Amino acid sequence: MGRLQDKVALITGAGTGVGRACMEIFAKEGAKVVGVSRTQANLDEALKAVTDAGGEGAVVAADLSTPEGAQKAFDGAMQAFGRVDVLVNSAGVGYNHVAESEGSMADTANTTPEKWREVLAINLDSGFYMCRLAIPHMQEKGGGAIVNVTSISGYQGLPAAHTYTAAKGGMINLTRSLCVAYAKDNIRANAIAPGFIATRMVADFLPLFDDEAVAESITPMKRPGTPEEMAYGCLYLASDEASYCNGTILTIDGGTTARQ
């Protein structure tokens, strides 16, 4: 307990999945948490879980695919707690986004320019918008930690979801570039690269793990990871325990990419 004691963590994508797990676990480790998502109801549930466990937090409903939404999120954190020590960029969409945006997870030949821009805005631009607001603040206060949630799809080729993979690959190299540029300011930038994680983003594919042979072909551990397992990776990178980690891409995939 207390690995983030007295720090303020701004966590995007906090309504569900990895972002929500980060919000709850960071609060248990002493951080004041500010959760951001597009859906107020999900945020309210996440905040209740934090406060019911004795933590302290706030939430901001915002669309981070726009500069204005990112500004709203950052301003909300500053109004709530007056500073941001940790930024976790977990906002994003995946395969389930097809239900509300047909064609968003297609291959290049079947992706329209509009869908390309849409997914990049949510999965990559949002991280850029948040970083460009947080970094000057962290410089002024003497340092901070940025943790980006990417994916092993950012360094794998896939038959579809090409905009998604491009965005995740972009976030990986943005993380490395942030490290190189801002280490002098005591700002660490790292990322986790999850594998197949049991979230609603991939809910339609979870039955694949019911077949042991198929499950083993996906990952040697033959099961999906959990949001909490990803959040603990983020916790490590955000904490002072990772004081010499900078530009690190921490793969948490049950061994999926070990075969490559």
From TrEMBL:
**Any Pfam family hit:** adh_short_C2
Superkingdom as given in the UniProt entry: Bacteria
- An MF annotation (GO) of this entry: oxidoreductase activity, acting on the CH-OH group of donors, NAD or NADP as acceptor
- SUPFAM superfamilies, A to Z: NAD(P)-binding Rossmann-fold domains
Enumerate the PANTHER family for this protein: SHORT-CHAIN DEHYDROGENASES/REDUCTASES FAMILY MEMBER (PTHR42760)
- Similarity remark: Belongs to the short-chain dehydrogenases/reductases (SDR) family.
Q: State what protein this is by name.
A: Short-chain dehydrogenase
Please report the organism this UniProt entry assigns to the protein: Rhodosalinus halophilus
